[in-house]
Design brief:
Pfam families: HTH_20, Methyltransf_23. GO terms for molecular function: DNA-binding transcription factor activity. The protein is an alpha/beta fold. It has 2 domains: about 110 residues, Winged helix-like DNA-binding domain superfamily/Winged helix DNA-binding domain (Arc Repressor Mutant, subunit A, Orthogonal Bundle), CATH 1.10.10; about 200 residues, 3-Layer(aba) Sandwich (Rossmann fold). The protein has 15 helices and 10 strands. Strand 7, helix 13 and strand 8 form a beta-alpha-beta unit. Helix 2 runs parallel beside helix 6 and helix 4 crosses helix 5. The relative contact order is 0.10.
Length: about 325
């Protein structure tokens, strides 16, 4: 005689039942490739279709299945939907631990050269878009940026944090990524013996140069280029600063990787940037590529780069935006 329990399915799925959709969704080579390219980057449906040479409808189907299984999550950027790996994975839950194990497994496999080249092409497209904005609005940069946040609202807390740390830390060298008009360079010039200001916009560097002349800042080198240029030169810094830069760069996660590679042991990365928001007008009016970031995103990128999160400060603005000021440290073990 068959028991009633064997005949009637339980209303509560077993752990095996909850794992099945994850393995089913990940049991496809293309979907595993998608997870690999989303290790640090966030891509839209069209970009992923471009990466894998497939129709948008087919890519959307794969993304829907993976999203339902919890392998990735959507992120709205204005009118477009981008996809990323989930930010919140509980180390105690079996489902989340399984998803993390899948991520760890695919991350051990290097991306093929053709995919790396396509990813770089997309980043270049994003960079061109950002550079075109700054070339067009260089004369109105401060005015455009202050539509979101006045310079002092984030520069002052960053300066205070650096001032507090400099009482205990001896910082000889500093790097500012994306100095804009150079408004923060006087702070760094005073805090460090030597400062490098790096920007890929010639128009903005011209403005930063004028600031250095007007403020008589004699310990600053202004360099046109990207972090790869400094890595190739073998530069090393005690302090790296990026004020309201991440939402303008093609791959924000790479800033953390490059900053870590450019920092001496015991060095500090200080970031100020927008928290995630839904005001998509910022893309057209301020040249933003990204509508801010979840704090967990920055922490995850830093952890992936071997950096340890330090102090955090969140500043609410009247226009609905919120700025986060974060510090991340490079310990000896991270090298």
């Amino acid at each position: 005689m068959t028991s009633t329990a064997a005949q009637i399915p339980s209303e509560h799925p077993s752990e095996v039942d909850t794992l099945a959709p994850i393995f089913k969704a990940s049991g496809d080579p293309l979907r595993l490739e998608i997870l690999r390219v989303l290790r640090r980057d966030t891509f839209g449906v069209l970009e992923l279709s471009q990466l894998f040479d497939m129709r948008q409808s087919g890519m959307s189907h794969h993304l829907k299945v993976m999203n339902k299984a919890g392998l990735l999550e959507p992120q709205r950027e204005g009118n477009a939907i981008f996809y990323r790996r989930p930010l919140h994975l509980d180390s105690e839950k079996l489902i989340d631990k399984t998803i993390r194990q899948i991520f760890d497994a695919v991350d051990r496999i290097a991306l093929p050269q053709h995919l790396q080249e396509k990813i770089q092409a997309i980043r270049n497209q994003r960079a061109d878009q950002s550079q075109a904005f700054f070339a067009r609005y260089a004369e109105k940069f401060r005015e455009q940026q202050e539509l979101i946040a006045a310079f002092d609202l984030y520069a002052q807390p960053v300066a205070e944090l650096i001032g507090k740390r400099s009482k205990k830390q001896r910082w000889k060298t500093a790097l500012e990524i994306g100095p804009g008009e150079g408004g923060f360079l006087p702070v760094l010039s005073k805090a460090c013996e030597h400062v490098v200001a790096l920007d890929n916009s010639r128009d903005m560097l011209a403005k930063a140069t004028r600031t250095c002349i007007d403020e008589r800042l004699n310990n600053i080198d202004l360099i046109e280029g990207v972090t790869d240029n400094l890595l190739a030169r073998g530069d090393a810094f005690d302090l790296v600063v990026a004020n309201m830069v991440l939402h303008h760069v093609p791959s924000p996660a790479d800033i953390f990787l490059d900053a870590s590679a450019l920092m001496n042991n015991g060095g500090c990365l200080v970031i100020s940037d927008l928290c995630s928001h839904d005001q998509d007008w910022a893309k057209e009016n301020c040249g933003d590529l990204w509508l801010g970031f979840e704090p967990e995103e920055l922490t995850s990128w830093a952890d992936d780069a071997g950096l340890v999160a330090g102090e955090s400060l969140f500043i609410g603005l009247r226009n609905g935006f919120q700025v986060q000021v974060r510090e991340f440290w490079k310990t000896a073990e991270a090298d």
